[in-house]
Design a protein that fits this description.
mainly alpha, 2 domains, 28 helices, 3% strand, elongated
Amino acid sequence: MWYLTAEEEAHAAEALSSGGFFAEWAGVMLVLPFVAFLLIVFFGKRMRRHGAEFAIGALAVNLVWSSVLFFQNAVEGIHREVSWVVGEIGVFGGDRLVFELGWVVDGLSIMMFWLVSFVGLLVFVYAVGYMHGDVRVTAFFAAFSLFAGAMLVLVGAPNLVQLIIGWEGVGLASYLLIGHYWEDLDNVRAANKAFLVNKVADVGLILGAVVLGFTLGTFRFSELSVAAFDHSPELAGVAVAAGLLLFFGAMGKSAQFPLHIWLPDAMAGPTPVSALMHAATMVTAGVYLMGRAFPLFEYLASDTRGLMVAIGAITLFAAGLLALVQDDIKKVLAYSTVSQLGYMMTAVAAGGYTAGLFHLFTHAFFKALLFLGAGAVIHAVHSNNMSDMGGLRHYMPRTHWTFVVGSLSLAGIFPLAGFWSKDEILATLGYEGYTTVMWIGIAGAFVTAFYMARAVALTFWGSYKGHGHPHEAPAVMTVPLIGLAIPSIFAGFLNVPGVELGPIRNFTAWLGARVVPMGDHHAESVDWALAAVGLAAALTGLVLGWLVFSPDADTQRARDRFRIPVLYPLLEAKYFLDHIAWAIVNATKGPLARLVDWTNSYVIDGVVNAAGFLSAALARFVYGGLDQRGIDLAYNGLSQMADAAGMAARRLQTGRVQQYAAGFVVGALVLVLMIAVFR
């Protein structure tokens, strides 16, 4: 397997390909979903598929475009950055801070371009069948295109300002999609909760961007990476504070404990939204931010890594336990996503740039597959509750087998994709000295396998407990399931230590197409002993889960067998975090409302009124003093003087020739006398 030392990589960065036409014009991919959004808004209701044609077409073009870049980067490595200045402001010291828009094309952004396009296209196709007959299909696909477009703007951003624009665009689109069924008050509350929790975290991101921008004099990630790698003294002074602020922003988007409370409620939106949100957009944005800003944490803000690893470890284990007690199949997968995001964040924080992002890559396939499979089940039985399911393998064989593939990959079973990415995280934690966290990760693998065995058993095995006659989903929904099942099986082979893929470079190498070396460790071979331990934990979880939630057991009886004293009530109450959040809101909203009212009445209104009074006084002074008594008086005085001179001169104009001749003689005499006197 080919790996570069830091020195070799620094030299190799200069030799990276520019990518040619497709990299130079990669911004087309960022624009197309927004073009589709506008077309859907204006023409969607006239289309046969209510505008889905535009959304699917845009992502199909993006998939072809990003696939070309993906192949080019896998073979030779690409780094290209294109930016235009759109504005600037003055800062302290007389410098100018510019605002730019553009795109960056490198290993990380290419991976995300392709992931958003590939997963997004399959989810969009699936949504045509899932949303058939919905009352607001056009609005759904318009918001869905906005969602994908905002994520592409985010991952293609060459600077923090553009990333924040995409970040907030993703938040807006998710708010619209989570609350798609706004007639139900619970859905409105879920959308509001997601919006507000993320806005609290976004304060950290924005403040961190301001600190870094004003310190460096630029918002560019490339400049940030170089400054961190060079241990810039200016950046060193604020690196820890800026790093913690960025991480706080990432905690909200990527649902890290305790800011994860919004994500399970976000399942109120249509299932295709959940699939795209959990696989390739929204919740992966925080991990992407940590990857993009990795040099800051690796070279300057390393003191923050212990805290970030701890939060990630708590998230991966605590959220996994919560999935054990959920009856809503989508919430089982939602807490699973939170847990897997904990793995990713822990890996990146521990120094495993490649490990964390490789798990993001593989997770996108099997998590999208699981959500779409759950959507097919919900579409068939008209219920989210697993107590209304059971025995569906007889009615929905394609959905069943693809769901099993996704479950096994998520559980980390050899040789599926999830096994390789999760094993790399465990190996990275061990190498970096986080042995305790590594064992927490292994325990998390056991829990993951346990709750997925429960989900499969209660959904597809036993006897059907619902009403009506379930049926297999139509081809427009099952074909995307098969399309996602394939990389859920094979994607892990892209980054097997010690294995070459011919001209296609290993994931580690092509993800590393960058200007500054990341400095993360890469194993040259698989640690089979550690891999065996992780696999044994996963297999044990599968077996125990299957024994506890046996195929013929009624859901309620199976739950009763799992009611562990103390632990089960704690999990059922979700660690009382929602109660704590609600208590904080209730405790603060009265005083906060009064503070806001006082601030508005006495501070803001005071400033506005004072400004109004001063403006009125200034106007009176300017109008009554300067204008009326100054400028007007001067002009009027000059006018009157000119008038008087004119009246006096008028009296001399009599029309009598004798008077004019006398005047001429008198004038001539005066001139003669003056010449005589002054000679």
